[in-house]
TrEMBL record:
Protein name per UniProt: Uncharacterized protein
Protein source organism: Natronolimnohabitans innermongolicus JCM 12255
Record InterPro entries: DUF7972
Pfam family, one: DUF7972
Assigned keywords, A-Z: Membrane, Transmembrane, Transmembrane helix
Transmembrane segments: 30-47, 67-86, 257-276, 291-314
Length: 341
């Protein structure tokens, strides 16, 4: 009944898996975009050193540059239009009649009151980070209450099992609480730390303890164990709610980024078509034709909207894939001992 509680436990003990998830989730999207574009630029420039047809010959005889950059114009306009349309469809779910809005408001209030009644708080914080902090703290408190309830138990195996369970629960809770304390909604840190609290496994372990030691558990210990399970059940909907809001936030950010990038990218494509041909920038720099340097830069600018789209969607898709099941379901055996579940 072990759990990975390390910061990089998302890789499941696999260093390459940890690096992969770090790139997919933790790295700033603009930094990752810049890194990808830099790699593409370097590859294009170095390709000129291979024994291929020189770019200047292609530009002079085949109108290669015009063909390349004119196709970018249609691709950028079409791609940005599609992404913005999809974003509007997602945001349209927020629209509704006043009755629907009141129902959503009441559901939100009811959920907060249910959580407050379970964690013994008069009023939970309105911000997502502090709210999750209070909920995790309440779960940890329920664990301490369970440990106190079994102090007089004679079943040493039961005491050891519950002791291990509470130790793992408290360790994961402390780790998540430390990082949740200053996490702001709109940044990935809030979602990252919410995902690191493996509530699915904790529900499973608590139910397993109750089933395996039903005869040994005292009434007080069984009640405390049920209280833990009840409190853990609130974490799933809370996390999923904030995850959904984060996805909407990211799609809005993505749409704005594409709109900001598209006009400069289209301008550069226009310049490349109108003013660059086989007679432009004669000579070389560092042994590489100047036309290669400028054409490679133009290509990188042309694909930049697509790369921005990729980096944002990769993170959204990765989070969505790893949180498909809510509650005590673990989709893959390898995820049992990971914090992300």
């Amino acid at each position: 009944m072990s759990e990975a509680n390390s910061d990089d436990g998302f890789g499941g003990g696999d260093p390459l898996g940890g690096v992969r998830l770090w790139l997919l989730l933790r790295v700033n999207r603009w930094v990752l975009t810049g890194g990808i574009l830099l790699v593409v630029y370097v590859v294009l420039v170095l390709a000129s050193a291979l024994e291929l047809t020189p770019l200047r010959i292609i530009a002079e005889n085949q109108d290669g540059l015009e063909f390349l950059f004119s196709s970018f114009i249609g691709a950028i306009i079409t791609g940005v239009s599609i992404v913005v349309t999809i974003n509007q469809l997602v945001l349209s779910q927020e629209l509704g009649a006043v009755g629907d809005q009141r129902a959503r408001m009441q559901d939100s209030i009811d959920f907060r009151q249910d959580v407050e009644g379970t964690i013994d708080e008069d009023a939970s914080p309105p911000e997502p980070g502090p709210f999750l902090w209070e909920l995790v703290d309440g779960i940890e408190e329920r664990g301490r209450e369970l440990e106190s309830a079994i102090e007089d138990e004679r079943d040493e195996e039961l005491k050891a099992t519950i002791g291990d369970y509470v130790e793992e629960l408290s360790g994961n809770a402390h780790q998540v609480k430390d990082d949740l304390e200053n996490a702001q909604f709109g940044t990935f840190e809030l979602i990252w730390n919410a995902l690191r609290f493996n509530y699915s496994r904790k529900i499973y372990d608590a139910r397993k303890i109750r089933a395996d030691h039903r005869e040994s558990l005292s009434e007080a210990a069984a009640e405390k164990l049920d209280h833990i399970i009840k409190t853990l059940k609130f974490f799933g909907p809370a996390r999923e709610h904030f995850k959904t809001l984060y996805f909407q936030w990211e799609l809005i950010t993505l749409s704005r980024a594409l709109l900001y990038i598209s006009v400069p990218a289209l301008t550069v494509m226009g310049i490349m078509i109108m003013y660059v041909d086989g007679n432009t920038l004669l000579g070389s720099t560092l042994g590489i034709d100047k036309l290669v340097w400028i054409t490679s830069a133009g290509f990188v600018v042309g694909i930049s909207p697509f790369v921005v789209f990729i980096t944002y969607i990769l993170r959204i898709a990765t989070v969505a894939k790893r949180t498909l099941a809510m509650g005590p379901f673990i989709l893959r055996e390898s995820e049992r001992d990971q914090d992300l579940g």
